[in-house]
Amino acid sequence: MHYEGNIIRPPSEANSILLQVTVGCSHRKCTFCDASRLKRFKIKPDAIIMEDIAFAATYCKNQRRVFLCDRDALIVPQQKLLHILKKIETQLPWVTRVGVYANSKSLSMKTADELKELNSHGLGIAYMGLETGDDITLKNIRKGATSAKMIEMGKKARTAGIKLSITVLLGIAGRERSKIHARETGRVLSGIDPEYIGALSLMLIPGTPLYNDFESGSFPLLEPNEMLEELKIMIENTNLTSGLFHANHASNYLPIRAKLPKEKEATIKLINDALNGKIELRPEYMRGL
């Protein structure tokens, strides 16, 4: 495989064939992310991508899923992306699902019919970083979209038959807007109604704008109990038809995996027990990105 730079993929795609079709991130502006310090975004040449698919056809016959790296590969022009998916179909016929990162920009650049076409050729899931449903926080972290746009694009993907896994960040709004962030994120998640939600706890990366704000004292990092309180409010305000809400990433203080709405009340009780000291939290030395 021809890999360039740091390969970015969701934790759930750890056992997938990692096919790098883009390098870096097309947005590169989020204040909490170090993408702006990495290589500039580019789409890799067809010849290299086809070589990697041929390699996978010989050496990756036990893997049933493909993930198109890096960040936001959905931004690849429609015909090129469709060509890649069709090659996967013909050369890796055992593959049951292709996944990709997406954001509001890349989803807006595809028509509803184009998304349906991609889905018909194996694109089964998109991982979308919402981070927060609070419009003020979205602006502060330079996410490049409003909450209304996030809901619109999330629904667009789901209508096309593409499953959504949405990531949110505990602590991203700081202390002053913590509860607003939690409530508004629940509102947006309810509006999109995704199949999967992953909550991560903010861990600051040295050299990023948000880390610099923390160093200067203008951005406070929440204490563990404050992040748990935020998580509780978020779940209280999230109403899904049927989805999986998990906060079992290594960054989180309390591992949670809950089916909503069925396990909503039990999950809120679990968080309350942790807040009341009845459950031990993950120690700092065991946390990581």
Describe, in plain words, how this protein is organized in 3D.
The chain is α/β, with parallel strands linked by helices and 289 residues long. The strands form two sheets. It has an eight-stranded mixed β-sheet. Strands 2-3 form a two-stranded antiparallel sheet. It has one domain: Alpha-Beta Barrel (TIM Barrel), CATH 3.20.20.70. Helix 6 (147-159) packs parallel to helix 7 (178-192). Helix content is 38%, strand content 17%. The chain is globular, with a radius of gyration of 19 Å. The protein starts with 16 loop residues before the first strand and ends in a 14-residue tail after the last helix. The protein has helices at 46-59, 78-91, 104-108, 112-120, 135-140, 147-159, 178-192, 209-216, 224-236, 264-275; strands spanning 17-20, 22-23, 42-43, 65-69, 97-102, 123-131, 163-170, 196-201, 243-246, 257-260.
Sum this structure up briefly.
By secondary structure, the protein is α/β, with parallel strands linked by helices.
Q: What is the overall shape?
A: globular
Give the proportion of residues in helices.
25-40%
Point out poorly predicted stretches.
Answer: none
The assigned structural class equals alpha/beta
State the CATH class. Alpha Beta
Proportion of β residues? 15-25%
Count of individual helical segments: 10
CATH architecture: Alpha-Beta Barrel
Let me know the number of strands: 10
- Counting structural domains, the number is 1
Helix-strand pattern: EEEHEHEHHEHHEHEHHEEH
How would you sum up the major sheet? 8 strands, mixed
> Strand sequence of the main sheet, in spatial order?
1-4-5-6-7-8-9-10
Q: Radius of gyration, rounded? A: 19 Å
What is the third-level CATH name, the topology?
TIM Barrel
Oligomer: single chain
CATH level-four homologous superfamily name: Aldolase class I
End-to-end Cα distance, whole Å, is: 25 Å
Report mean pLDDT, rounded to a whole number: 94
